[in-house]
Design a protein that fits this description.
Two copies of one chain form a homodimer. By secondary structure, the first copy, chain A, is an alpha+beta fold. Chain A contains eleven helices and 26 strands.
Chain lengths: ~425, ~425
C-alpha cells in the first residue's frame, strides 16, 4: 500500500531553510520533484526542485550527502526503476537535507537558481502510450466525429489507449512548429496539403513508469501502483483537420506525433500520497470493472485530488501586457479509469512496460465548458469562438499563441503542491 | 540516386573464400547484411553474415582491418546513421576482405560459426511505426471489419500508419507467449477475458531508419531513400478477437503490442540495389500521389523485386518429421506506397525519425489466396480452415505452432540474396 504512505516529509509544519520554498505554489518542501537540469552550459544531471532553486543531486552523491548511485546517470530512468522503499528513503533523506539547518552549510553550495538552468526531458522515453480515460472528453469529441455514436460500446470495459510517438516529446518551453499535412474539407474533391488550420492543445496527466515487467508477464492490479514513478503534465498537441481525415481505421498518427510537451518535473507518488482520494463511483447502470481491473484499495485511493488548468496568451495579449487568460479549470478525477487500471490494462496482454515509459491519460475534461480540456470542445468544433481580453477571438491556435498547463494538488490539512509549468508557443510552419 | 548504385560488390562472378557463402540462398558475398551477435557467452558486437558464418566486425576494427568507429558500439544505431557514401565504402571494404584470398589469413580467425552464436535486436529501437500499404490486405481485412466499406476514402491519398510498441520487438527465435485479453463474441453480453482464440501472424517488410531528421523539418521525397539503413522481415503478431473489440476509435493496441518478431539481419539498401524495380502503376481511376509524395526516380526504382513466403510447422508435424508447409508466397511489390513514400509521409508533419527506428509496411498480401499474408485472410476470418499435411486443420494459430517468414530478392543476371529467417513458436498463455 505504498501509495498511501505518509511520513514526516508530508508534515505541513515542516519548512525548508531555502526561503523561496515557503508558500511556493509548486515546490514547497512537501513536493521534492525530480528533474534533469543543466546549470548554464554544463552537462545534464539529476536535481530536485525546492522553491525557486534546484538542488544538484549528482553533486550531493559526489559530496557523500546522499547514497544513491542512479542519481549519477545522465537520465532518470534508473532512478525511476528503484523499488518503492528505496524511493521513500531517498525522499526522506532529501527532505532532511533541505529542512534541517544543520545541513545548510554543506548543501547550500549545491543549489542553483532555477531561472539560470535548462530543464531537459527527465528520462529516455522508450515508449509513449496515450489513453482516452477522460470520459467527458470522449463524449464531447465522439459527438463531433460520430454524432450518433459518441461513446463506443467498448469504452466502459476497455481503458482505450493507443501508441504515440516518443521521439517528438519535448520539455516545457520548447517552441512548437505548426505542422503541415493533409486535410480534406467536406466540399473539397481531393485533400489539401498545408499548415494545419485547426491546431489544438490537449490537457493530460502524464504518468512515468518506474519498475517494468517482463514480456509475457502481466502486472496485477494490486501491484500496479508500485510500477508508477511519478506524474507530469502533458500537452498532446493535435491537428484536428489532419485527424479527421487520417484516423480511420488505425487511429491518430500525423495529427498527434509532431510534438508533445511535458512539464519536466517528475512529481512522485510519495509526494502525491496525501492527495489520494476515492475513485468517483461509476454512474448507475455502468458495468463494474472486469475482475482484472478491480481492486478495493485502488477504488478507495486511486484518484488524485488534482486541479488542472489551461492558460492562453496571444502575441497581442503579451504586447498589451495582458495576463494569460484561463481557458479551463477542472479536477483530474474526471478520469473514468484510475492510473493503476491503465497500467494493469496496458500490461494485461504481457506487453512489457519499461522504466521511463510515459503514459498519457488522454484529455481530461470536466462536464461543463469551463472545464473542457481542448479547444475542439470549447469552440464546439470551431463553431463557437471564444473572446480574448485583447479583443481577439479563437477557435483554434494561431502562430504566436502560448499555451500553459498547470496542476495543483490540495487536501485539507496538507500543504498544496504543484507540477510546474507545461508551456509552449506556436511558431509558423516551415 | 544512391539506391540504384551498383559496383564490384554486386558482381555475380565475385565469390568468397568462405566456402559456405557459395550458392548460399540468404548470405552470399553479394548480400553482407549487418547484425548484432554474441559468440557463446560473450558480449554483443557488430557482425556481418557470410554463408554459414559471421564475421566479427568489431574485432576487424580492433585488428586494423576496417576503419569504422560506429562498429565498436554495442548497438548498430550509429552504423545505421552513417552517410550513404560511408556505408558504401564500408561495404566495399568488407566485400574485399571476404573475397580476396590475400586477406584470408588475417580475417579467418575473426569468423564464427553462425550456429554457435546468438543474434540480438540490431538496434535500440526508439520508435516503431506500422503502416498499412498492402492494398490487397487492406481490402481483405477491411471487408471483414467493414463489409460495406472495405477501403476508406483516405487510403489512396494517405499512406495510412500508426504507432506500434517498440519494447516488445524480439529477434527471430524468441518464443511468443499467447496473450490474454478482452474479447466480445457477438452473442456475449459482456466481454470475456482470457487467452486469445484468434492468434494470427502478419507478413510484413521492416524498414530500418538510418539518418534522422530534426523535429519540425520534413524529409523531401527525393531524399527519403538516403534515410533508409536497411530492411528486415517483420511478423506483427495479432490477436484478432482483441482487435475487433478494442480498435475503435483509436486503432489497434493490445491486439498487437504483446510481441513482434523481426529477422535480425539488416539487409542494406546497397545490397538491394540490383533488385530495385519500378513501382507498379496505379490502377486506372486511382488518384496520382499528391505532389509531396511524387518523385519520378521513386516511381522508376522504388519497389523491390522481393518474394515473401510464410511457412507453418505444428508440433504434430514436427513429431511426424514433416516439413513446414508453405502457407503463402507473393511479391513485396503489392505495396500501394513505396518505402520512400512512407518515410516522407511519416516526416511530412515534422515528426522526427531517428537512427534505429523501425517502420513496418503492414501486411503484404497478393491478390489471390495463395499469397495472403495472414490467417485472417487465408481462413476468411476463421470460416474456411486450411488442411495441414499432419491431418490437422487451422483457422488461427495453436500453441506449439511455429511460423517462419522468408524473403528472397532476385533479378536477371544477379546472384539472389535472402533475409534469413523470421521465426517464432507460440507457447501457452501464462
Amino acid at each position: 500500500m505504498s501509495y498511501w504512505h505518509t511520513d514526516e516529509t508530508h508534515d505541513p509544519a515542516r519548512t525548508s531553510w531555502v526561503a523561496s520554498a515557503q508558500d511556493h505554489g509548486d515546490f514547497p518542501i512537501q513536493n521534492l520533484p525530480y528533474g534533469l537540469f543543466s546549470p548554464a552550459d554544463e552537462a545534464p544531471r539529476a536535481g530536485v526542485a525546492i522553491g525557486d532553486a534546484i538542488l544538484d543531486l549528482a553533486a550531493c552523491v559526489g559530496a557523500g550527502l546522499i547514497d544513491c548511485a542512479p542519481l549519477l546517470e545522465g537520465q532518470l530512468n534508473a532512478l525511476m526503476a528503484l523499488p518503492v522503499a528505496e524511493r521513500i528513503a531517498l525522499r526522506r533523506r532529501i527532505s532532511a537535507l533541505l529542512s534541517d539547518p544543520a545541513h545548510r552549510p554543506a548543501v547550500e553550495p549545491l543549489l542553483h537558481r532555477a531561472a539560470d538552468c535548462t530543464l531537459h526531458l527527465p528520462a529516455r522515453i522508450g515508449d509513449y502510450s496515450d489513453f482516452y480515460v477522460g470520459i467527458h472528453h470522449a463524449n464531447n469529441i465522439g459527438r463531433q466525429f460520430r454524432p450518433d455514436n459518441p461513446l463506443l460500446p467498448n469504452y466502459k470495459y476497455v481503458p482505450i489507449g493507443y501508441h504515440g510517438r516518443a521521439s517528438s516529446i519535448r520539455p516545457s518551453g520548447d517552441p512548437l512548429v505548426r505542422p503541415r499535412g493533409q486535410r480534406k474539407p467536406p466540399d473539397a474533391e481531393v485533400p489539401l496539403v498545408g499548415p494545419t488550420a485547426r491546431l489544438d492543445y490537449e490537457l493530460e496527466l502524464g504518468v512515468w513508469i518506474g519498475a517494468g515487467n517482463d514480456l509475457g508477464s502481466p502486472i496485477p492490479i494490486g501491484e500496479a501502483a508500485d510500477h508508477v514513478a511519478g506524474f507530469c503534465l502533458l500537452n498532446d498537441w493535435s491537428a484536428r483537420d489532419f485527424q479527421a481525415w487520417e484516423y480511420q481505421p488505425l487511429g491518430p498518427f500525423l495529427a498527434k506525433n509532431f510534438h508533445s510537451t511535458i512539464s519536466p518535473w517528475v512529481v512522485t507518488p510519495e509526494a502525491m500520497a496525501p492527495f489520494r482520494i476515492a475513485q468517483p463511483a461509476r454512474p448507475d447502470g455502468d458495468p463494474a470493472p472486469l475482475p482484472y481491473l478491480s481492486d478495493a484499495d485502488d477504488q478507495a485511493y486511486g484518484a488524485l485530488a488534482l486541479t488542472l488548468e489551461v492558460y492562453l496568451s496571444t502575441q497581442a495579449m503579451r504586447d498589451a501586457e495582458l495576463s494569460p487568460m484561463r481557458l479551463s479549470q477542472g479536477p483530474a478525477s474526471n478520469m473514468y479509469w484510475t492510473v493503476s487500471q491503465i497500467v494493469t490494462h496496458h500490461a494485461s496482454n504481457g506487453c512489457n512496460l519499461m522504466p521511463g515509459d510515459l503514459l498519457g491519460s488522454g484529455t481530461i475534461s470536466a462536464p461543463t465548458r469551463d472545464g473542457y480540456g481542448s479547444l475542439m470542445e470549447i469552440s464546439s468544433g470551431g463553431r463557437e469562438p471564444i473572446s480574448l481580453p485583447s479583443g481577439e477571438t479563437r477557435c483554434f491556435l494561431e502562430d504566436g499563441d502560448e499555451v500553459t498547463l498547470r496542476a495543483t494538488a490540495s487536501a485539507p490539512g496538507n500543504v498544496s503542491i504543484g507540477f510546474g509549468e507545461c508551456r509552449a508557443t506556436v511558431v509558423p510552419a516551415r
